Amino acid sequence: MLCKTDKKPSNERFPGTTGLNILIDGPESVVEIVSSIIDDNLIHLLTEQSILYHNQNAEKWKILPKTLKWANITLEEMRKYLGLITLMGQVRKENIRDYWSIDPTISTPIFRHIMIRNHFESIWQVWNFSDNSQQTHDSWPMYEYFVQKFS
């Protein structure tokens, strides 16, 4: 059901080729494809912007009683974080803390082996894509990144 502000979807036929246009013949191919889209530049951008967001909001979080302990994020931790978020799309749980559960009926050990829950949650709290203080309507780093990648 559309609300009053939604535009009616276009039923025009897509003129391009849909689906994958490359051959994936093994796990190495998948890694190469993902690495070509999510490269070190994107990992660096996400890491840098998340640290900046934390620093811009650190004073606000100090007054909250349940603020998570902060340690700057490394590029490797951001890669792990993105991998865990991707895996969460495949392994569905009732709530985010269930991914780290040791209850044998719902346990998925890879999550706690990759990253401790509190560190994941501290990254989750600050995960950011651009400097909010510098944001303009015509400058969105993530959008620009993906336009360049998919052009």
Question: What labels describe this entry?
Answer:
151 residues; mainly alpha
Question: What can you see in these coordinates?
Answer:
The chain has a domain at 39-132 and 140-150. The chain has 151 residues and is an all-alpha fold. The chain has helices spanning 27-37, 40-62, 75-88, 110-114, 117-126, 141-150. The mean pLDDT is 81. The radius of gyration is 19 Å and the shape is globular. It is built from six helices and no strands.
Largest sheet data: none
Please give the alpha-carbon distance between the first and last residues.
33 Å
By DSSP, the count of extended strands is 0
- Content-based structural category: mainly alpha
Task: Characterize the overall form.
Answer: globular
Low-confidence stretches: none
* Count of DSSP-assigned helices: 6
How much helical structure, as a percent, in the residues? 40-55%
Mean pLDDT: 81
Radius of gyration: 19 Å
Strand content: under 5%
- H/E element string? HHHHHH
Please specify the SSE layout and strand pairing.
Layout: H1 27-37, H2 40-62, H3 75-88, H4 110-114, H5 117-126, H6 141-150
Brief rundown of the structure:
With about 150 residues, the protein is mainly alpha-helical. It contains 6 helices and no strands.
